[in-house]
Amino acid sequence: MLQIMNQGGIIMYFILLFSLVATVIIVERLLYFRKIGIDEEKMIDRLKGALSKGHYEEALSICDNNPSPITNLMRVGIEHRHYDSHVIKEAILDAANMEIPKLERFLSALGTIANITPLLGLLGTVTGNIKAFGILGKFGAVGDPSLLAQGISEALLTTAAGLIVAIPVIIFYNYLVSRANNIIVRLENRVNDLVLLLSDRRKEEVES
Question: What is the mean pLDDT of the chain?
């Protein structure tokens, strides 16, 4: 491994560094999405059951024990349940906007790595070829091909390394972006449902 890194030159170390950073980001994001993954319909039914009985502390406890974007919105709505529906909606929308950066955290960095590693590989190809042609220019006809080995190996290894890192990173980046976008769309669709749920409960309390 060390020999390959040395043959590839300094560009290989940058590619390795970016691959390690990308791996950390991917693992962190996968663990995060796994952590917030819940059965939303089942969760909403549990919350409806608690709210229909006026058990707000129980509903808040359910939110605390099942952390996810949807339960975070529900918690904010419950805490603002004494206000008018438009105030509740504004509070939930503000909470939803706070969730979006959490969902998209590090994704821009991952996309940058996916774009930059092939370019680094190309840069290694250019610098490797410069070295190879520099040897030819210095010595003319080269009888010993080993004199060109370092430049040629750098050109080939960095290109391969850049693609090897970029391809899986692009796949994971697209997957994670799609996952985040799906959650954001669901949050937007849930806002009105949550407002209606809390408003109906508030009307029942006022009438009773």
Answer: 81
Tell me the C-alpha distance between 36 and 58, whole Å: 20
pTM (2 d.p.): 0.78
Task: Report the pLDDT averaged over residues 87-109.
Answer: 88
- 125 vs 27: which has the higher pLDDT: 27
Cα separation, 89 vs 77, in Å, equals 8
Rounded to whole angstroms, how far apart are CA atoms 134 and 139?
9
The DSSP symbol for 70 reads H
Q: Which residue has the tokens 């608690």?
A: 50
Rounding to the nearest 10 degrees, give the CA dihedral for residues 59, 62, 67, 71: -30
Query: Which pairs with CB-CB distance under 8 Å and at least 24 residues apart come from 51-59?
Result: 51/78, 51/197, 51/198, 51/201, 52/201, 54/201, 54/205, 56/81
- Residue keyed to tokens 């408003």: 199
* C-alpha 98 chain-centroid distance: 16
Backbone phi, psi, residue 114, to 5°: -60, -35
Q: Say if residue 6's pLDDT is above 80.
A: no
Among 42, 94, 49, which Cα is nearest to 72's?
94
Pair 54, 204: CB distance under 8 Å: no
Query: Which is it for the CA torsion 46, 51, 53, 59, positive or negative?
Result: positive
96 or 138: which carries more pLDDT confidence? 96
